[in-house]
Amino acid sequence: MLKAEGGDIMLIDYKGSSDMEAESTIDSQTLTPKDAAELFNLVDSANFFSLPSEIFGLRFGIHPKVERVYTLTIELAGEKHTVNTETGAIPSALEQLCNWLDEHLKNKN
């Protein structure tokens, strides 16, 4: 289980929109302890570092209506992993993480 403990720094490069706007970066050191803990829990719940690098509907025989494309790169403890996915194919736990990131970035601006 991932924990937001002293010394653990998570960097997230995130792009999650239909218009592919500029990428945003979130550094766990800049979050409140509560937000950092929640973020670590969401990444852990999504099993992010075990996900394939591409999760698209056509790959799994699904033909979803694509409203958004997501690209997440997370770096933690020397490990770096990128996942690209889309609406209709995104696993629910990863969608919860993306929704949290969307809210955090919206409130930040």
Can you put this structure into words, describing what you see?
The chain has 109 residues and is an alpha+beta fold. It has helices at residues 33-45, 92-108, and strands at residues 10-17, 24-27, 54-55, 69-76, 79-86. It has one domain (10-108). The chain has 2 helices and 5 strands, in the order ββαβββα. Strand 1 and strand 2 (24-27) form a beta hairpin. It is globular. The model has no long low-confidence stretch (mean pLDDT 82).
Brief sketch in words of this structure:
By secondary structure, this protein is of the alpha+beta class.
Number of helices: 2
Major sheet, described briefly?
5 strands, mixed
Across the major sheet, the strand order is 2-1-4-5-3
- Runs in which pLDDT lies below 50 for 5 or more consecutive residues are none
Can you tell me the number of structural domains?
Answer: 1
| Rg over CA atoms | 14 Å
Q: How many strand elements? A: 5
- Termini separation comes to 31 Å
- The fraction of residues assigned to DSSP E strands is 25-35%
> What proportion of the residues is helical, as a percent range?
25-40%
Order of helices and strands: EEHEEEH
**Helical/strand content category:** alpha+beta
Shape: globular
Mean pLDDT: 82
Relevant terms:
single chain, 109 residues, alpha+beta, five-stranded mixed β-sheet, globular
